[in-house]
Amino acid sequence: MDKAHPERRLLPLTLGAIGVVYGDIGTSPLYTLHEVFGPEAGVPLDAPHLIGAASTVFWALMFVVTLKYVILILRADNRGEGGIMALTALAVAAAGATSARRGFLLMVGLFGAALFYGDSVITPAMSVVSAVEGLGIVAPHLERYVLPIAVGVLIALFIVQRQSTGVVGRMFGPVLTLWFLVLAGTGLVQIVC
């Protein structure tokens, strides 16, 4: 980092963080509202239910981001390292010499890691398939290509992801920033009109 002019690196770092951290959160609306109003849910697609679903999603994201990330996770680090395993190591170290307490905290940490790995496996597939599904809606004759395109996109993503988190952030930061601006713009238009 440029120590003389740290502000020069702020925008690229911010875009990278948006690309890495908020990719999951930003793409969740692609499939969340579809699942809420799907035929198996039985929720009617009308104004009160739409506002209620959007409000629930909004406040859930606000609480998760604010409480989990800003208040808890960003304040707890293990010598600069984060993540569930680093936080588990901190908790186990703080538990003292009581082996039952240490064992319990270790098991909770491992359970959290298992949840994280499960989420890491299913979320990219759900996000990509949900994004590509729009092809079948816009052009129904292309619906048979949704799954092969989604698989191709996932393979490409995982190949790129092997390079580094920084590369992923630089690639997806501007895209997600544009996505958030489009979401905000369309929401603002609907509020004003």
Keywords:
193 residues, mainly alpha, 6 helices, globular
TL;DR of this structure?
The protein is an all-alpha fold and 193 residues long. The protein has six helices and no strands. α1 crosses α4 (99-138) and α3 (84-94) runs antiparallel to α4.
Distance separating the two termini? 45 Å
What is the number of helices? 6
Instruction: Kindly report the average pLDDT value.
Output: 82
Main sheet record: none
- Based on secondary structure, the structural category is mainly alpha
Estimate nothing, just give the exact number of structural domains: 1
Instruction: Give the low-pLDDT segments.
Output: none
Taken in chain order, the helices and strands follow as HHHHHH
Radius of gyration: 20 Å
Can you count the beta strands? 0
Shape: globular
> β content, as a range?
under 5%
Percent of residues in helical segments?
over 70%
How are the elements arranged and paired?
Blueprint: H1 7-36, H2 47-72, H3 84-94, H4 99-138, H5 146-161, H6 165-192
Write up this protein.
The structure is a single chain. This protein is 78% helix and 0% strand. The chain has one domain (15-192). It has helices at 7-36, 47-72, 84-94, 99-138, 146-161, 165-192. With 193 residues, it is mainly α.
